[in-house]
Prior knowledge:
The complex is a heterodimer of chains A (about 110) and B (about 850).
Chain A: H1 10-22, H2 28-39, H3 45-58, E1 61-68, E2 76-82, H4 84-105
Antiparallel strand pairs in A: 1-2
Helix pairs in contact in A: 1-2, 1-3, 2-3
Chain B: H1 10-19, H2 22-43, H3 45-59, H4 69-94, H5 96-124, E1 136-144, E2 150-153, E3 156-157, H6 158-167, E4 171-181, E5 184-186, E6 189-190, E7 194-198, H7 202-205, E8 210-212, E9 223-227, H8 228-235, E10 244-249, E11 252-262, E12 275-278, H9 280-283, E13 292-299, H10 309-322, E14 328-335, H11 336-339, E15 346-347, H12 356-385, H13 389-397, H14 402-440, H15 452-478, H16 482-487, H17 493-528, E16 539-543, H18 550-557, E17 563-569, E18 579-584, E19 587-596, H19 600-603, E20 608-611, H20 619-622, E21 625-629, H21 630-636, E22 645-648, E23 651-659, E24 674-678, E25 686-691, H22 696-710, E26 719-721, H23 727-765, H24 767-775, H25 780-817, H26 826-853, H27 856-861
Helix pairs in contact in B: 1-3, 2-3, 4-14, 5-12, 5-14, 5-15, 5-23, 6-10, 12-15, 12-17, 12-23, 14-15, 17-23, 17-25, 17-26, 23-26, 25-26
Amino acid sequence: MGTKGTYIGELEELVLLVVGLLYEGAYGVSVLKEIKEQTGREVNISGIHSVMNRLEDKGLLRSEMGGASNTRGGRRKRIYFLTAAGKATLDQVRSVREKLYSQLSSLPNYQFSA
Amino acid sequence: MNNEVIRPPKWPDRFLSWYCNDRVREQVQGDAHELFYWRLEDKGVSRARWAFMWDVVRLFKWSNIKRTNRQKQQLNNIAMFKNYFKIGLRNLWKQKMPSTINIIGLSLAVGCCLVSFKWIESNLVKDQFHERAEDTYLITPTRKTEDGDKLRFARVTLSVADMVEQEVPGIEAMTRYTGGYGQIKVDGTKFGNNYIHTDPGFFDVFSFKIIHGDKTALDDPRSVVLNEANATAFFGDEFPIGKQISMEVNGEEKFFEVSAVIENTPDNSSIYPGILVNFSLLEAYANPLTRTAFTFMVLNESIDPASLSTSLNQVMDKKNALTPKSLYEAISLEPLVTMSKNGDEIANGFGGRPPLAPFILLSCIGGFMLLLATFNYVNIATVMAMKRVKEIGVRKVIGGRRQQLIVQFLMENLILCTLALIVGCLLASAFFIPWFNGITGGGLSLDLLNHKNLWWFLLILLSFITLVSGAYPAFYISSFKPVAIFRGNSQKGSKRRLTGGLLTFQMILAVITIVAGIMFVRTNSVNESRDWGYDQHDKLTLNIPSGQSYATLMGEISKNPNVEAIAASRGILGRVSHFKRVEIGEKRIDANIFRTNNSYPELLQLKLKEGRFFNEQARSQNKQSLLVNQTFMDRLQLDMADNPVVVIDSINYSIIGVLEDFHYASFSDIIRPAGFRVIEDSLLTDMTLQVRQGTALKAKTEIESLLTELDPEHARHYAGFQEEIFDNHFREMKGISNVMLFTASLAMLLSAMGLFGLVSLSISSRQKDFSIKKVLGATLGQLSGDIYKRFIVILGLAIVVGGTISVFLIGVLLDAVYGYHEKVGALPLTLAGIILLSVAALTINSQVRTVKHMNPAETLRAE
């Protein structure tokens, strides 16, 4: 693709993945909880919001207002979906990483420094 | 436990919903709440609360914060106004000369306007400073007069107050108020005779400030309340509370203790409480059915005074039942605030319609000054704008709309006008008002803090001068087209005509005021040296003390070697007026009939034209004789040859002699018909003594001490000079002419400043022009001729037009003020023209000098 939108940060990649995992249940808090459960990372909600906004601006996520729940005081959630471009980006990131990684493991006599 | 009740902390939550942008509020707040409840289960209440607060802080970021469109504009506006303000201040500072001219001019005008406003307001708006003024009423009865006319009176009988209190609902406070008479003494020294009886409710009805003491000060009948002036007069610097004074009440000396001191009565009050004592002192001896007093009451706000007519009628019936001989036709209420204005309709009441002439004069002066100053501003601002066309062009090119430019220029104007207003207030309170008080003897003051009307006036004045002086320059400047500006040609023709027109108008006003000033001063000096028609010198006048007969007093006084002759009269010529209807056949006039003894006209050395003076011997014949002035004869078209007999009060009088006209009233009035008739010695109240030339002062002290010897009871005996009779009048006239002179100098100053500004601006905009001419060998005369040419036309026009207008206008003004005056002749007009021309020449020359000293190399090198 070559455009600026292609490069995404590490937290952005994580959020993209989690939104994809959660499928129709991805919104601020659920993403935050999922990240915490799956990776043990504590991220604050404000950070999640800004990352998701940024990803939406880049066209990697799409959002719509979802259903309300009692714990939210009757307020609706903004549900995020992974777009095709988002999926493509994830694929690209993964392929780049695997390509590099495979080259790393093909070096037979490499001594890892302490 | 009480899990149900636990909610996210209230204030952070409110803060969150307040700052959150509408678009994201729902989702963000929902997330925050959900997280809170999640943490509540995981980590407990306090951790969850802290975390929530922390989240709220974290979420307070640009993308979430509320930014409506309107708010965006407001932020912009503030920045814009800030910019205007800054540029305005810089311009003021940069253009020091025009700014100074404008501020000085406007502040002088504002000062004049403030004086006019204060004077007019204090005469027009009376009694409104009382807290309950709107709800206070004067009880006014209507009675039939002897002629059968119905007339409203200002005072009701004492008994009515109680009846009103019983019958009329909603009365919150009430007070009666009437004068008392009796010798007032402090430590044995005598002070005047007048004090006031009033009920303790006085302080609930009226809100004169109490300086020492409190509202209960009048509860005790042995207490007295003084105003500041009296307290100072009685006790000097000593603390007055608790001091004793004595007053005669119903002829009996009583002692009172000072219980309170109130402020001096403001100018705009109809009642003047100076010394107040309890009303019960009067009630102790006065008949409540016949004695009257002003009776004021405060009604509850909810009560409509119009609805009280039935209860007032009941009061009237009750009162009439007690006094069948003197019946009220009606009882009505007069609001306190209109009491003075309607003074003419209420007999024996307060005030009356204020005189119109000073109103017109003062508002004219204020208006003139304001016009002059605003014209200065318009002129200078229009010319100054030419130096700022580039700025306007740039602003327009980068998208400034015309409207914005207008706002910008008005804003700059507002800054200047506000400054001028502040300086004007200072000028007025420090110089103009004290000076004006000195002339009028009034007590005006500029009380900025407690004077609502004044604030309104200042606000209106500010908007007026800002708009009037700023509107034209703002519209004119903002109409420039950027293309024309940058190409370098801008339309100048219309501007020149306008500035020229305004300057001409200023100069016309200046001419008129100068002529007025000259005419007033001149008329005054003519009047002061005018022949009075009799010899007013070396004559002493004195009041015959009550209990002394004319004959015995004459015997005592004639022993004084300096006294040459003695005559007596009822009232002193020049002070007394006693107009009577005089009839002869069908013709009738009103004439001032002086009642004297038979030697009085001769003693005054009135000039006899025809006939004879009163005859010393034939006393009975004298009683039927009348000595009249020439105007009397002219008005009735009488001839001495016919031995005319006139009728006054159905008594026949034959005219025995005609006097040349003499001045018996101030010079404000023309001489009207007058006559002398002889009365009984017992009715004479005043004596006039002819003293030897040069001994008047000595005789005065001698006579005064003689009177004190004869009548030691009275504190002061006073002998006056006949020639000082009109001194008050002269002082007053001097005051008016000083006001006119001041106005004239101010008008001249303002026009000169305007001229100065225009000349200097026109020179500075033509510096290159002049430099080139100078280099090419033009003389100073040629250069200054260039400058003069434009202004000489304006000045000439102003003198001609202003002179013509002033002949008419000043003539009318003089007619209103003086009984006799000269016509506005060539002399004052020429003088005014010379003054104007010389001031203008001085002003222009001061600028021409800059051309003279200008170094062409310097000016041409620039750029």
